[in-house]
C-alpha cells in the first residue's frame, strides 16, 4: 500500500473563523489529516488498440486563375483493450453505482463484491464510426498575375483518447484499488466522520474503504476540430511579401475529466450536513474521475505578416497575431468547479494571448572575401564569414483566476474561486507588489461557490530578444570548424510570472517569480 496524508489545519481550525485559525502542524501532531490517499494497484496497463485511416485527395485546376484542393478522410479508432481484461466501466445509471467488468457479464459493487450484470465489451464502449473529415482548399489569383493571391481552406480533424488517461483505467477494483478519504472539517476528533492516522487504511471491500474510480463516460466519442482560414497575399518590389489573414477553429466533444461524485451544495449552509450524505455514490470514493467528451472550444485570430526574402545578405520577417480563445477546459485535468452547472467553467483558455508580435531576421555581415568591405587582409580573416540571427517576441499576459484555499463550499469540489466584490483594476495596479486590486475579491460565504469567473485577469506580458552569431571556418578538405555564440534574453529584460491568486495568503496579489535572466552559450563544433 502506497499512500499520503494531507494536513492543512482544517481539523484544528475554529469552524466559525476558518480563514484565520487552524495550524497544519497541529493537525499532524494530533494525527488528524483532512485527506488520506492510499493505492494498492499497478501503475502499468498492457493496452492494445488500432487506428485506420483512408483518404482521397485531388487538385482541380478550374481555370488559369483558380485552383481547388479537395479531399475526404475517413478514420476509425478502435477502443483500447487490456491484455488481462482489467478495464472497468463505471455505470452511474445503476442506483449507487457499479463497475462493469470488461469482456464479462459481471459487475463489482463495494461491500457486495462480484454480481451479475449486462455484458460489457473488452473496449468498454463502442468505437466512433462517424469520423468523416472533409478538406477544401482554394487558391485564386484575382488579377491573373503571380503578385496577388487569395487563399482559403476548411477541414475537420479527429483526435483520440490520451494515453495518460488510459493507463489509469486499470486501477479500479476488483483488480486494484485507490482509496481517497476525506474527513468532515467540522467533525469532532473522536467522531466517525474524522480520519485518524492510527486507523488507516480500512480493509478492501469494507464500507469505510470507498474506492476511487477512473474510467471513460459511457457515451465516449472521438473529439474533433473544425479549422478554417482565409488570407490575402501581395508581393511588393524588392522581394517583399505582405499577408493579411484570418484563422479560426472550433473544438467539439473535447476530453475533460470530471468528478462524478461531487457532493451537492447544502440546502442550508448555516446548518452543514456531512459531505458523504450529499454525494451521489456514497459507496465509492471522493473522486469518481470520469473522462467525458462534451467540452467545446473556439479560437479566432487576425494575422498580419510582412516578409523580406533573403537577398543582399539579409532577410526579415515580422508577424502579429490578434486572437482570442475560449473553452470549458484547457487541459484534461481542468475539472469544473460545479459538476451540476458546468457552464460556469466557460472562459478564456489558459493559453489565450490577446496580442503576440514576432520579429526575426538574418544578416550576413558585409566583411570578408567576396563582400563589400575588408575583402582581404587581417580584417577579412577576423571579421569575414560571420552571420547574425535575431528573434524578438512580445506578447500580452496569460490569463488566470482568483481562488480560495480549502473547501469553502463544503462539497469537495476542486478549483473553487473567489467572490468578486469590486473592480480588479481599480486604484494602484500592475505593480510587482500589487498586480491587481486585492480588495476586489473575498472568500465566499461558507457553503457557497464564488461568483468570479474563470481566467478573468491577465498576468504580465513578456519581451524576449534572442541573438545568435556564428561563423564557419574551413580547415581543409572535408573539415570545418563552427564558432557559435547564443544569447538568450540578450537585454536581460525581467519577465515576471503570475502573481499569487489565492485570497488571504501572504503572496496574494504579489509577483514572486520571473523567467530566466540573460543566458550566454559559447560553442565550437568540428566537422570532419
Explain this structure.
With 528 residues, this protein is mainly β. The protein has a domain at 353-403 and 454-528. The chain is 3% helix and 43% strand. It has three helices and 28 strands. The protein has helices spanning 24-30, 163-166, 377-383; strands at 2-6, 35-39, 47-48, 51-63, 66-77, 81-82, 88-91, 98-101, 104-109, 113-120, 132-140, 148-158, 178-182, 213-216, 224-236, 240-259, 288-311, 314-327, 347-348, 355-364, 386-395, 399-400, 419-420, 441-442, 457-458, 462-476, 479-488, 519-527. It has a 15-stranded mixed sheet that branches. A four-stranded antiparallel sheet has the order 7-8-9-10, with no helix packed on it. The chain is globular and about 90 Å long. The relative contact order is 0.09.
Q: Total helix count?
A: 3
What does the average pLDDT come to? Answer: 89
Measure the end-to-end span: 56 Å
Class from helix and strand fractions: mainly beta
The multimeric state of the shown protein is single chain
Alpha-carbon Rg, integer? 30 Å
Give the DSSP E fraction (strand runs of 2 or more residues).
35-45%
Largest sheet: 15 strands, mixed
Low-confidence stretches: none
* Total strands: 28
The coarse silhouette is: globular
Helix content: under 10%
Amino acid at each position: 500500500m502506497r499512500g499520503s496524508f494531507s494536513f492543512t489545519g482544517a481539523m484544528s481550525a475554529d469552524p466559525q473563523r476558518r480563514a484565520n485559525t487552524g495550524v497544519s502542524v497541529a493537525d499532524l501532531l494530533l494525527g488528524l489529516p483532512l485527506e488520506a490517499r492510499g493505492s494498492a494497484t499497478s501503475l502499468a496497463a498492457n493496452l492494445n488498440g488500432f487506428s485506420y485511416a483512408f483518404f482521397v485527395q485531388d487538385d482541380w485546376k478550374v481555370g488559369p486563375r483558380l485552383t481547388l484542393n479537395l479531399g475526404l478522410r475517413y478514420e476509425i479508432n478502435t477502443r483500447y483493450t487490456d491484455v488481462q481484461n482489467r478495464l472497468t466501466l463505471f455505470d452511474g445509471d445503476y442506483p449507487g453505482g457499479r463497475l462493469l467488468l470488461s469482456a464479462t457479464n459481471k459487475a463489482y459493487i463495494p461491500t457486495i463484491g462480484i454480481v451479475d450484470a449486462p455484458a460489457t465489451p473488452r473496449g468498454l464502449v463502442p468505437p466512433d464510426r462517424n469520423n468523416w473529415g472533409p478538406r477544401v482548399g482554394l487558391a485564386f489569383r484575382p488579377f491573373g498575375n503571380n503578385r496577388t493571391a487569395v487563399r482559403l481552406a476548411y477541414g475537420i480533424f479527429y483526435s483520440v483518447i490520451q494515453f495518460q488517461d488510459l493507463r489509469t483505467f486499470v486501477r479500479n477494483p476488483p483488480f486494484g484499488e485507490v482509496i481517497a478519504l476525506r474527513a468532515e472539517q467540522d467533525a469532532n476528533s473522536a467522531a466517525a466522520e474524522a480520519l485518524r492516522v492510527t486507523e488507516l487504511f480500512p480493509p478492501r471491500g469494507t464500507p469505510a474503504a470507498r474506492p476511487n474510480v477512473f474510467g471513460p463516460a459511457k457515451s465516449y466519442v472521438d473529439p474533433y476540430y473544425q479549422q478554417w482560414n482565409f488570407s490575402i497575399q501581395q508581393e511588393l518590389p524588392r522581394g517583399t511579401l505582405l499577408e493579411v489573414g484570418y484563422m479560426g477553429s472550433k473544438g467539439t466533444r473535447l476530453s475533460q475529466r470530471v468528478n462524478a461524485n461531487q457532493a451537492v451544495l447544502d440546502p442550508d449552509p448555516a446548518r452543514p450536513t456531512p459531505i458523504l450524505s450529499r454525494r451521489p455514490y456514497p459507496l465509492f470514493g471522493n473522486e469518481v474521475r470520469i473522462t467525458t467528451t462534451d467540452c467545446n472550444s473556439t479560437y479566432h485570430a487576425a494575422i498580419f505578416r510582412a516578409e523580406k526574402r533573403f537577398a543582399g545578405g539579409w532577410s526579415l520577417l515580422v508577424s502579429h497575431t490578434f486572437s482570442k480563445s475560449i473553452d470549458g477546459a484547457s487541459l484534461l485535468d481542468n475539472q469544473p468547479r460545479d459538476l451540476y452547472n458546468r457552464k460556469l467553467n466557460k472562459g478564456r483558455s489558459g493559453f489565450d494571448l490577446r496580442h503576440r508580435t514576432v520579429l526575426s531576421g538574418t544578416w550576413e555581415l558585409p566583411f570578408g572575401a567576396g563582400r563589400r568591405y575588408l575583402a582581404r587582409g587581417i580584417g577579412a580573416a577576423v571579421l569575414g564569414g560571420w552571420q547574425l540571427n535575431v528573434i524578438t517576441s512580445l506578447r500580452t499576459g496569460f490569463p488566470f483566476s482568483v481562488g480560495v484555499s480549502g473547501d469553502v463550499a463544503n462539497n469537495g469540489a476542486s478549483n473553487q474561486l473567489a467572490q468578486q466584490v469590486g473592480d480588479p483594476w481599480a486604484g494602484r495596479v500592475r505593480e510587482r507588489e500589487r498586480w491587481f486590486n486585492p480588495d476586489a475579491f473575498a472568500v465566499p460565504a461558507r457553503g457557497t461557490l464564488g461568483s468570479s469567473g474563470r481566467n478573468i485577469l491577465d498576468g504580465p506580458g513578456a519581451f524576449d530578444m534572442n541573438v545568435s552569431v556564428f561563423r564557419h571556418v574551413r580547415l581543409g578538405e572535408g573539415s570545418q570548424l563552427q564558432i557559435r555564440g547564443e544569447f538568450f534574453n540578450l537585454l536581460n529584460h525581467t519577465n515576471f510570472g503570475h502573481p499569487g491568486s489565492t485570497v488571504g495568503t501572504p503572496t496574494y496579489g504579489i509577483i514572486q517569480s520571473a523567467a530566466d535572466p540573460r543566458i550566454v552559450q559559447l560553442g565550437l563544433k568540428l566537422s570532419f
